[in-house]
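User: Predict the structure for this protein chain, please.
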Amino acid sequence: MQHIFYPRGVCSRKMTVEIEDGIIRKVEVVGGCDGNLKGISRLLVGMPAEEAAARMQGVKCGFKNTSCPDQLSRALRECLEKEAK
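Assistant: Here is the predicted structure, written as structure tokens:
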């Protein structure tokens, strides 16, 4: 299941996640800190989506109440909800 998510309150503009049977198969992020987000995306492939979301949830960036990883956790959870239907 592929899901497109538009993050709020961060530098990245678009996140595309693909989950199959609860496992992350692909992550692409447009905008934000390119190298860091590419690295995070590669680390997530093959990981259970729920575990990844739990690890990234609540991470803050500077004085912001959220971060790209926090927004990515929301994208993963939305995709899991869609997959469950």
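The chain has a mean pLDDT of 95.
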